[in-house]
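Quick question: what would this complex look like in 3D?
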Amino acid sequence: MAVDAVVFPSAAIVGNNIFAVQTALSLAQMGIDVKLVTDSLSFGCNDATAETSVELPPDQRYFWPLLLRTVSHPLVTLYTGAQVESVKKNDNGFTLDVLQRPRFVQADLCTGCGRCQAECSVRLTTLVNGQKIKHGAIHKPLLAPKAVPSAYVIDKNGMAPCRVECPLGINVQGFISLLANDKTERAAELIAEAAPLGGILGRVCRHPCEANCSRGKLDTPVSIRALHRYAADAATAIPGWRSATQEAIREGRIAIIGSGPAGLTAAWELKRRGYSPVVFESHSVVGGMLATGIPRFRLPREVREKEIEAIRSLGIDIRAGITVGRDITFTYLRERGFKAFFLAIGALRNNRLNIPGEELDGVVDCMSLLLTLNLKVDTFVGANVVIIGDGNSAIDSARAVIRWNKAAVKILSWTVPEELTAAEEEVEEAIMEGVTIEYQAMPVEILGEGGRVTGVRCRKTELTNEIMPNGRHRPRPIPETDFVIEADHVVVAIGQSPDASQLGIDGLSLRKGTGVIKVNPLTLETSIPGVFAGGDCVTGPNNVVEAMAAGLRAAESIDRYLQKRDLAIGRTLEPEAVAEVDIESIEAIPHVRATMPAISLQDRVSGFEETTTGLSAEAALQEAQRCLNCAMCSQCLECVAACQLDAVSHDDVAKCTEIGAQTVIRFIDDNPAQAAQATKCAWSTTQDGITIVHPQPEQEITAQLNRSTAVAVRTALKIKPKLATMTEPKEADARLLSPDVALSSSVTGDAVIGVFLCCCGDSISSVIDFSEIAKHLASLPSVAFIMEMPQACTAEGASFIAQKAVDASLTGLVVASCRCCNLGQVCYSCTDRRAMCLRNLREFFAVDSNVQLEFVNIREQCAWVHSDDRNGATQKALRMVSAAVSTAACALPASRSRNDILPSALIIGGGVTNIVAAKALVSQGYGVEVLTRQPSRLQRQGSLLLASLGLSELTKADIAARPWPSSLALRGVPGKYEALLGGNQPGDKVTVGAVMIDIEGLNKKPSCMVNSNSGELLSRLMSRLRKMDISAGVRSDLLREVTLRETAGLFLLSLDADSSLEGQVMRGLTAAARVSSYLSQGSVTSRAMAVDIDAKNCRGCGDCAVICPYIEMRARESGVPYAFVDKALCYGCGMCVSSCDTGAIIQQSQSDKHIELVLRSLLSREQASDMLGTKKLAPDVLVFACNWDGWSCLEAASYMELSYPASVKVVRIRCLSRLHAGLILKAFELGAEGVMLLGCGPGKCHFESDSGCVLAEYEKAQQMLELFGMPKERLTLSQLPAFDGYGFVEQVAKLVRGLRKHSVKRAAVAASSRSRRVAAVNTKQ
Amino acid sequence: MIDLPKVIKETGIRLCLDCGKCTVVCPVAKYDHDFNPRLIVQGALRRNGLGPVDAAVWSCLSCNMCMERCNYNVKYTDFIRSLRYKAVEEGAELQYTHGGIMQTAMHITGDRNTKAKHLGWLPEDIKVDKQSDTAFFVGCTPYFDVVFSDLGANTIEGTKGALMLLNRAQIPFRLLDSERCCGRDLLLIGDLKGFLALANANAHEFSSKGIKRIVTSCPECYYTLKVDYPKFVENWNMQVVHMTETIATPVADGRLATGKLIETVTYHDPCTLGRYSRIFDQPRALLLSIEGLKLVEMADNREKALCCGASPWAYCGSVNKQIQTERLKQAKATGAEVLVTACPKCQIHLSCAQKDASGGSVAKVKIKNIFSLIAESLLA
């Protein structure tokens, strides 16, 4: 046999539903390493970008707490966003290759405060369960109100086409989304992250972005260039760099020759990288073509100068008027230590027509003309001008000439209107301004007279099918079509070529014919190492944006060159993948494209003033909102700035992970093809040995959960035949900061309370005014300090709190954050952040420490639901925090008992189920006693079944069965139960840690149960069970176990519909898993909420024992009986407390006194009056919410972003049945105008109380109200399903409406009686 | 501020001889060995009323049994009450039974804005004279019957019976809708502020309606309005009469004929009517006027009558239960079918003691209000 003893038992579970989670927990509890894999980004929910859809959890009441427990189990590892690519079988089991999608937010850091979403500039709509949910590109998991991890997610859809198309890589969608949110400065900053010269680009860029804009597929593209210009013009400050600013100064002198767009951009980028380049400009004006080529009416001088000045002000040395090759030589520069060069000399040598007459007086090239006109040098311009060429320079020249002296201007174009080289809108403008164009005319000779030009002889052309390199058809002259156009001035504008030879650089390769510099297209390196070239001198005449892009590319190369890195690695000329967009699915705001406003035609042609005036703020906002955000996240990085924990990481990428596991279980969510089969068979195994579990939607959730546990047990038996002791995660022992510091209230007896207000990344502090709270709390004598802190839920937060607590020797502390209770419970309203908050704090403050921890949830219960009423929210928060201060100041640490659990179990009842359970428990090393009627036959039968199911290991476990007793009585306390067996041997008894009772077995032979002593546990449990529907009883028992890990070690097996033998085996395995999970705890500690009964005060009326099966009446000498409860049994619902007239039952942490203190603080009117600007908007309403469904409704309201008046305050209690009429009326006494009792629906109570308990008290309180002359409608009882946020808000609104009506009526009555009195007084007089 | 040395002087506890008779007769001390009236007095004297108040003060029933036996007329219950005021001043927590509902009700009705409507129970055949200057003070029975509905004490029947008797005796009276609780329970537990709110509201109500005389069937209201109000309320000059006194003459001279009821009853003297107000004979005379009714006395009766065992909705435990059990045992021992009392609170407390879900051995006897019994005799 192969030696593979060291393989740690492990299982991979693929699936995202309650059943997968239950299996994971059961396996982990059996000591198996569990890898829980889902392709969703969170468990408990699905998110918009997940590929498969997962239904909402069937019952969150079970699912959520189960999930929280599972994910916090140390043996469970989560793999979210993980698509299983392949499963391979190997010697040790399986290897799963998974591809993990990035979530772009670090799950362990994100606290879910929501600030990022508030700042997110993109709004998306997602259809979730038929409902449209609006959210930011960064958002919390969408499908369920809660998820693990609860961290935010960013929806990304690759890169927007506009950004991909931009040669400079400007984040176009990003700056547009910022403009759409009216964040102009930020937009300008974002543009400046990619490139300088924003105002110039916004005017003269060729805007390839617009051609590919997704909106163009819908109607017309977004006017991106106009928005670019708007952002640059409207930003008041010249934006600097935000990210990637290079602090370090880098060595290496760099010469940039030419100060055009390419040269300036290269200088700018190199400066950012820490270099100090020197720019040489041969002209006296800086800017190259920006200054000399582009006429002023398109690019005003002020704009150019401002932006060049901005570059200069970065510390870039620009030396104008120095021509390299003439004034200084390249060799000289080398000698002076320049290591790298960027040649950006442009293309300034005009191409010649090479036709007769080109040397005539009055024939000029367009570059010279534009230069003189631009720089306002007095120059000759004729009255009848012909411009040869149809490029942008030709159009610019034509328009400039019109402006100069209103000359008649005619452009000669070789080709047809559709194929002009110049930009369409420029041509349109030119025609509008009076330029005429002669199409399909080729000049063949310039005519002259006396050395002066008089006209141009042209020949008609026609298009051939030959396509030229620029993508147009080649025109061909048609013979004998000559005609003459008169002219007194001819401008040749047929393109330029670079003149690199003038530089005098030896060894610089130029392309023949065009004269452009030869470069490596990727690195822009010339034939000389260290010498790079870009812009028009490489491409021939091109445009500004391409030149700038070359500048950036060259800067990167130069940086690499100087750092001696490879110039090419990691760079590509391939464009980025463009986002795929389903245009149909996007909701577009139906605006039409903004038109660029321009000055009047009259003004245009009479001067060189800028033609267009730029978008107005309103137009820009509207235009920006036309953007479809086709790439979802716009990467505007507002979330990065908003996050105080640096949790956002836009650079995340998908990664491949390998998961090794001995076994794989896959949970199928929804597969109609297999559904029919699934009803017959709960699970199947593939040929490879992968277990597949099918849904059985028609089964009750309890049965489905049990099945999940059974799957776990079966799996465990296979991969780990000898199960070790099952483990539950234990609460870590708290470490005290310093044992010398007494953190004890017992020293002085005076309370010293510290208050910590959690900003929650501003999510709380942006609504609630902490200074106002601090101001009022400071007057409370017990408050030592009030402190704001950024995040209370982090480990740093906890250690900060602990340090302050030690420094100030606190006796109690109040943390106002998102956490809502100090109990270790996992109720279904809890969140993973809340659980983490308590876990972190418990590192320092043990459960039984003397420091009283109090939590107030001012986030969900206050800031989030009253964000529309900040003053009201602040007032409410103040009251909530003061309530916590007062309870922290008077609370006594609850005394808690601890019982050891014996490692053995008693199984009562016959049947295969019990035999199987017994065998499973024995195989795990627990002592087991079985009471069954036919032990040997059943054992045989059980063994056969187990063997037939492939669980033959289990058949080896030997169990001892006892004969069926004639009577049976059970007594004891959790951890140690004694069963007295009547029968052959009197006094026979069994002592065990847990008891499992099969109701089925008992029902068949009930006479064996002794029911004489009312103090005995079993009979009490039995009588309780008889009162209710058994399946319902077991159901809530399970819920309790799930949520609170609360079992007393008494397990009742219900009658099960599935009576097949296989079903019974599974039932037995499930039961064994539950029992051993309990036994493995080793000891059981009473709950903090457990009650104490003061025997002296107890009148022995027995009311409590009637309601609670765990309370027993005991006799005392005086004859007056008294009630007793073992604390370990008490669930702390508090129902007995309200039933006790004498007050003998005390529940330390929710005594009447505590609740009264809370009510006093919440309903206090003292602070209200001196708060400025306070106006009472709504009547004071107090909600008593039960811990379970009631509280979950409030939570849901908060998560659904509903709101209700801030005058509605909430007291949370364990169960509505804890309330008695006295407490309800107390709320009215203390000033509540309305009271709502908010609890679970009938039959849904977490503690199995029937709603009758609170109903009686509710009716009693209503009758009292009527006696007081108050309408009984002031008190309402709302029994809502869990998570019914809408229901709650609706009911509260109804109550408030009723109260308003009433108070109006009352005010009217008061007014009329006052007027009557006044009248009476008047008559007397 | 309570000046305890002054109280010590006024209540005459310096006269205490330390003889211990008070403790011997004290029903609480009998069952609670930590409670010792003599030691409370002696302790207070030793410290001249200084120092913290003994927590035992809350256990006193104010039944006045001790005063009955004290040879030197030490005003023990007054003294205990003063100790409670002091404790409250020092911030002691008040204790409540029944979740404090009675105290809360008193506080709510003590509010001037509360316009109570507590006369919904009033039978239509009761004639009320709205012009009368005599008011019948109902007290808390309508509230009791809501709060203690599970006991089935039906205390309102006593009130109804009393009103019927007034009608029969042709004594005119009116009912005041906004009458408040007399406040006795707050006074006894030391909640002076709450008591004054109620007392002043009541006084204002009476004077504004021109009331000169108050009849009440509740011994607690009777004693409080008659004895305590003059001490706390300015210009209180109301004539306060107990129902038994009001109808004593009409019954005696035959103007009000009582009916016939063949029943053996025993009469339980409420502390406030008996020991406090010294009304022992009138109720018995009324009972004996019923034809066929046989009155038997319990072992402890009249001045020595055992208290019903509960203080003002403040403290009630196993000790109180034992006192009540003993009283019920005494009643049972007489062979009477019905225990009759004049106080609704005695009705409630003794009924409560019979509630025993655990199947204990408390003696069971019917409990009735004297006025409902007389009314019953008339209707029989």
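Answer marked as accepted. DSSP finds 44 helices and 51 strands in chain A.
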